[in-house]
Design goal:
Helix content is 55%, strand content 3%. With 323 residues, it is mainly alpha-helical.
């Protein structure tokens, strides 16, 4: 249900869902009308804090704040025109390796999957769309980008990561409930409505916990991290710090060039960016859960369920949002 805001006991405003500024109010869509609709949220807010993520304020230590400064200084020390062919050798230096080690320890302090991989010396390979779980390299690159940009505090980086796990878990259950499997029998939770739910719910939860600005930064950095992980996988760069730096560089250049945006953001990434935006917009419209606006989005077509839906119009919309 939508939130009603009251002042001195008098109801002043009730939000209505508006599509594309057309002023069309959308009624609640009941789950029994369509098997894709959600009955309710899988993730629940803490009844005391009203947030999804736990309190990670203990991570805002002097050590972690220094790590954030060191990452920023390291990135800022590179030539502003660095590209994959002109990257400074500093990006693969002992200093870069030490930063990578410190960032890995930081991520392992709040992410149990990275902690397990680190303890077992199981260096998980790069992300690819055939595996729903974000891989080790993309998680490390994502944290490096967060620290280098300095938009989120260490505690907020941990919080949005935890919310990502919660959104992923709901999307996994959603795919199981709908019987989505590959021809080999693997659960298919990417490039379909489960992927849509994951990104929509994640951004709604982050907006609830930290505001829409932080939620947007987290969503955008996640997509940049996937670009960096693919650069690393393809051998375009050497080392995760260089991958993070190059992805950050691409992100800035894509702001002023649709061509660069189209070169690096594939259809699944564009789909994710647009569904991320819809999740934040739904929160801003005053919903107190993500299931209701998710159902409405499926019903009215504002949510994208498949990368094959992406066309030039959607790409322009995503690029304008990226700028």
């Amino acid at each position: 249900m939508k939130k009603s805001f009251k002042f001195m006991g008098i109801a002043l405003l009730t939000f209505s869902t508006v599509l594309g500024g057309l002023g069309v109010e959308q009624q609640k869509v009941e789950a029994e009308q369509n098997p894709l609709y959600l009955e309710e949220d899988y993730n629940k807010k803490d009844p005391i804090t009203g947030k999804y993520a736990p309190d990670f304020s203990y991570l805002d230590t002097e050590e972690n704040m220094q790590l954030q400064k060191d990452m920023q200084n390291f990135f800022n020390s590179q030539p502003s025109d660095s590209t994959s062919s002109t990257l400074s050798t500093k990006l693969t230096s002992d200093e870069a390796e030490e930063l990578s080690r410190r960032v890995t320890e930081f991520v392992a302090s709040y992410d149990p999957e990275v902690k397990l991989a680190t303890q077992s010396d199981r260096q998980i390979s790069t992300y690819n769309y055939d595996d729903y779980f974000d891989k080790y390299d993309s998680k490390i690159i994502e944290a490096q980008l967060h620290l280098a940009k300095g938009i989120l505090s260490p505690s907020q980086i941990a919080g949005v990561n935890t919310n990502a796990t919660g959104a992923r878990d709901h999307a996994t259950r959603y795919a199981k409930n709908n019987g989505w499997y590959t021809s080999s029998g693997a659960l298919k939770t990417w490039d379909n409505a489960a992927d849509t739910l994951r990104h929509f719910a994640w951004n709604w939860m982050n907006a609830n916990d930290y505001g829409t600005g932080i939620a947007r930064a987290a969503g955008d950095i996640h997509e940049l991290a996937l670009i960096g992980a693919n650069l690393l996988k393809d051998g375009a760069v050497n080392g995760d710090v260089a991958a993070a730096y190059m992805a950050n560089n691409i992100g800035y250049r894509a702001m002023t060039s649709l061509g660069i945006f189209n070169d690096y953001f594939d259809n699944p990434s564009v789909m994710d960016l647009l569904n991320n935006s819809q999740g934040r917009k739904a929160f801003a419209r005053g919903y107190d859960n993500y299931s209701e606006p998710f159902n409405i989005g499926l019903n009215n077509g504002s949510l994208i369920q498949f990368p094959t839906w992406i066309n030039s119009t959607y790409r322009n919309e995503a690029w304008n949002g990226w700028k």
